[in-house]
Amino acid sequence: MEEFLRILTQSMGELLAPTTAAYAMAAIGLNLHFGYTGLLNMGQAGFMLLGAYGFGITLTTGGSFWLALLVAIAAGVLFALILGMPTLQLRGDYLAIVTISAAEIVRWFGRSTLWQEWTGGASGLQGRYYKEPFQELSFLPEGRFALGPLEYINTGSDSWWTRIVAWGLVALVLVFVWLITRSPWGRVLKGIREDEDAVRALGKNVYSYKLQALVIGGAIGALGGVIFALPAAIVPDSMGRTMTFFVWTILLLGGAATVFGPVLGSMIFFAAYMFMRTGMRALAENTGVGDVITTTNVEQIGGMLVGVTLMLLVIFRPQGILGNKKELAFNVR
Amino acid sequence: MSVDDTTTAAAEVLRSVEHVPGAAKPNPLVVADHVTRKFGGMTAVDVDHLEVQEGVITALIGPNGAGKTTLFNLLTGFDRPNTGEWSFQGRSLSGKSGAAVAKAGMVRTFQLTKALSRLTVLQNMLLASPSNPGEKLALSWLPFLWKKHEAETTAKAMEILARFKLDTKAADYAGSLSGGQRKLLEMARALMTDPTIIMLDEPMAGVNPALVQSLLGHVQALRDEGMTVLFVEHDMHAVRHISDWVVVMAEGRIVAEGPPGSVMKDQAVVDAYLGAHHDTDLGDDALLDPEVLARLEAEEEKR
């Protein structure tokens, strides 16, 4: 029983974890791409990694926290422009191919020794090089604070301060995305998602709208990378394809083209993911299950189950938790 | 019979026009020259000269594969020609994008209806409104800047929807409409842009006969309001019923032009639709007669 409570507390902790916020942020950006505009971005992790690098490198070289945020956003914008300008004139699938390979290219450049003095190569940028300016901004008093069973230090890596900033950023961006998607601008995006040519025939510059969506969603993805880097280090190999597919799972779980889908999806995903892994580990240690599932296999099995979840979601509930069933009725062509 | 009166009024303007391919019109709105489009070795469109008269309904007909839709796509910027140029209201539109053509006032619909399924009928209409300030990203998040325009557009959209008897469906998803209703919606949506010329690609295809009557009425009403209509259609009854002028295409070329009453009797049109020897019974022994064969060959050479 005590063991079960511990697992439950750990899973609950994931609801507010900075990583959850980071993925929620990335999913909000992907939602703008896929949910509203119908763009298949298969490289959101590339945007996140670039954002994290922009943030981390600016701080290590002595820039301020705010400058670092701006550099991160600029990195996302630039990446979106480079990917979008040649491909958005082509059919949708090409963007998917280009984004997935571009994200990989960014990761391989990051882990190579080419710019090692900036990126730290394969072992990445350690948090201690860039965290200080961020933690100095904290106005929380020294010490620890407990919210129910969740207790963290006020200021530090895995702290309340990180959580406040992470979720504060998510809230800001969420309001911004809500405002722009409910506007006539957002309506044009949805029109493009349904049929580009129809929107073009009504005199709208489809290419420009798609590029705007890609840029904004990419910048939001870069911010997600910043949040991801706040409590941890910037390691290129932890921000690869797996990360992209986690973001997709989160978006489809919560519901594409909904406002709160990405946030809800991220919370549920990470709580369930933690519950599953700690649960399996506890079972493997304390019961006969250990003969079949050893504790060393738990991570791999967890990853596989995420893939299975993504498949089941797409097949049986493509509208996700918050999606509109009525909309789905005409989804099948 | 006011409809018939206006029909004759529109036809009156065209009375002086010669019944030949590429005939000059009194007030041409669209003028196209030497437009060709090749797909590999096949020439889909090869139009020397075409003028579309302002304020009348012009039908573009021809057998399957005649290049009607391809010509439509070229004129509206949805395809690029190999050669040729065309102008609209005296301004050159060749090489312009589909969006730019639509902005200039030349708005089209599609043969395969493009209703935006997961948008409501009203949203479909509102989307078409030109120069909506809320469609600029920089202003989109400040609703007070575009609320007024949005309200005006909504009123206009409801008015047009009412005319097409779609006003009760305004809140439904466009994907839930029937095929015929989608055709109506697409036409209504095009009207939201206040076009100078509306180009309809097979507006009657797949629409039930009861709806065809009202669709034809709508098209005529547009003309009577001063809009120019160019439409592609296979339904000869509809063409004869509403068009003021008919342009016939075959194998990429314009083979005949004229008012609907007489153009159908044109030998080139009959040949295009039925083949040159449609009244020769090939099972007939007459074919073995050298005299008949010689006549057929002579005819063939003349063409």
From TrEMBL, chain A:
Major site of localization recorded for this protein: membrane
TM helices/strands, residue ranges:
15-32, 39-59, 65-85, 160-180, 213-234, 246-273
Give the UniProt keywords, A-Z: Cell membrane, Membrane, Transmembrane, Transmembrane helix
CDD domains (UniProt xref): TM_PBP1_LivM_like
Keyword Plastid present in the record's keywords: the answer is: no
Q: How does it sit in the membrane?
A: Multi-pass membrane protein
Pfam families named among the record's database cross-references: BPD_transp_2 (PF02653)
Alphabetical list of InterPro entries matching this protein: ABC_transp_permease, LivM-like
- Enumerate the subcellular locations listed in this protein's record, separating them with semicolons: Cell membrane
What protein name applies here?
Amino acid/amide ABC transporter membrane protein 2 (HAAT family)
What organism is listed for this UniProt entry? Answer: Isoptericola halotolerans
TrEMBL record, chain B:
Coiled coil regions in record = none
Q: Which InterPro entries match?
A: AAA+_ATPase, ABC_AA/LPS_Transport, ABC_transporter-like_ATP-bd, ABC_transporter-like_CS, BCA_ABC_TP_C, P-loop_NTPase
Output the SUPFAM superfamilies linked to this UniProt entry: P-loop containing nucleoside triphosphate hydrolases
What the entry lists under Gene3D superfamilies is as follows:
P-loop containing nucleotide triphosphate hydrolases (3.40.50.300)
> What are this entry's molecular-function GO terms?
ATP binding
Swiss-Prot/TrEMBL keywords:
ATP-binding, Nucleotide-binding, Transport
Domain named ABC transporter is located at 30-276
Q: Which CDD domains match?
A: ABC_Mj1267_LivG_branched
Q: What is this protein called?
A: Amino acid/amide ABC transporter ATP-binding protein 1 (HAAT family)
